[in-house]
Structure formats: structure tokens, C-alpha cells
Amino acid sequence: RKTCRDLQPNERLCFPHRRKGESLGLVGIEAMACGIPVIGSQIAGIKGYLVEGENGYFTEVGNPYSIAEKLLEFAVSSKENKKRLSDNAFHSAAPYDEECVKNRWFLFYRVFQAEKPCSVSKDRDIYHTRNKVEKSTLQKSNF
Prior knowledge:
50% of the residues lie in helices and 8% in strands. By secondary structure, the protein is mainly alpha-helical. A three-stranded parallel beta sheet has the order 1-2-3, sandwiched between helices. Helix 1 crosses helix 3 (79-92) and helix 4 packs antiparallel against helix 5.
């Protein structure tokens, strides 16, 4: 059974957009989860996960020549470079995996609950101890 990672090594996603309000650009992350490097506009949410020359390429917003230049740069790059871009793209999508996101939100929620101050002064020691434990748990999980 083939998966999206079995696509041809010449696959890439061209994701130009002008919308400054693009919060994340989920289509880019979905492509990267399949090991497909992204060529996209250097704007909004995509800047949070695309690293120039590592997992894809940035283009200038609204400049079709910039898009053509990056498409050509990818097309003429070596097989090794395309494989490196593909592998990096795949690993770049890992933090956006559903289970990873759930775990981070769960830890965030637990810390948020621990941040509530206690009403009884002797409980403050419990609060501070619990808060330290929760924060150390977050640091270990790369939250």
C-alpha cells in the first residue's frame, strides 16, 4: 500500500498567496506531512514552519517571477537536495500532528489549572509545588 510519502521526488507544492490574514496555511503543513517541500509566499502563518532552503522556498508576495525562479531552483536541484528537502519537510510537519497538538493542549490546560491561586494560605505551598511540577513537565515535552 502506497502512502503520500511514496510520491515522486520531483513533487512540490506551490502555495502563493497574498492574504495577510492567512493564520497557518494548513495546506502547506499537509504537503510537508507527505514529504513534499513547499514553495510559498513569505507572509503570515507559513513563516512559522517554512525554512528557506531547508524544507522549501519562499517567494515574494505578488511576484510571479519570484515564483518561477523558485520553481526552477527546485527543478534543477540535485536528487540529494530534493531528498533532503523532502525529509526536512516531513519532519517539519511533526509538531502539527494531531496527537502532538492534543498533548500540548492537554499540558497547557493542566498548567492553566495549576496557575489558579489557592484561597487558603497553607494550600499556597501545594500550589507552588504543583506549579513547579507542571512547568517541568512542559519543559520536558518541548511545549
